[in-house]
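User: I'm preparing a small set of examples for a lab meeting where we compare how different chains pack in three dimensions. I only have the primary sequence for this one, and I'd like the structure in token form so I can line it up with the others. Please keep the answer compact; I'll paste it straight into my notes.
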Amino acid sequence: MAADTSASDDSIVKALQEYTTCDVADALVKLRVYHGGFLPGITMWSPQHQDGPTKIVGPAYTVQYATIEHGRPKRPGHYIDSVPAGAVIFVTATPTTSNALYGGLMSTRAKASGAVGSVIDGRFRDVQEQRDLNYPVFARNVGTTPPGPLFKVIAVDEPVLVRNEDGQDIIINPGDYLIGDVNGVVVLPRGLAEKALPLMAKQVVADSKMAVEIQKGMTFTEASKKFRS
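Assistant: Understood. Below is the structure token output for the 229-residue chain.
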């Protein structure tokens, strides 16, 4: 099922633009998602490496690579040609590989389709080409070698799994919200978005007041008790 980018979701995407990935993670912790939706090891590489105001927000369009020997057949066509406008492309592979899962032509097509960015749970290549496109790419690292003939795409717009450093499985479903900035990338489950947004708003206001008072000399403990309790 394709990631839903209907008008009913636009208000959530617009609202999330106001918050950092840390704000989203804080809200998820309050909702007892204790890993905060954080996807470890994935950082910003384009248009700059871990610098600048780049932010991406959009529903996930998921892509799953597997080894050529995997029982599921290779998906016909190329996933990049069906990316919905407004989506964040999420690419992963099982098992992990030193080959690059994603390259510059993919971003060229994604940008033309209206995608807002790509998140690669692995390596990508053509770094300068990505930056020349001014297209946001978040990834674990860079590489040079394409995935074929070792890997094939077996699924698109199906749930995918990411394991964080605590050994917890994070499931990304098509249409879940992916938010990326200089802090990293988090996934906000679609079903929690409306509950999370008011929590973000409340905490941002509280933290802003805390910052003002701390600069005046109030201790963190005092400020936290006054504004967060």
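A couple of notes for your slides: The mean pLDDT is 93. Helices lie at 7-16, 21-30, 104-113, 127-132, 193-215, 220-227.

User: Perfect, thanks.
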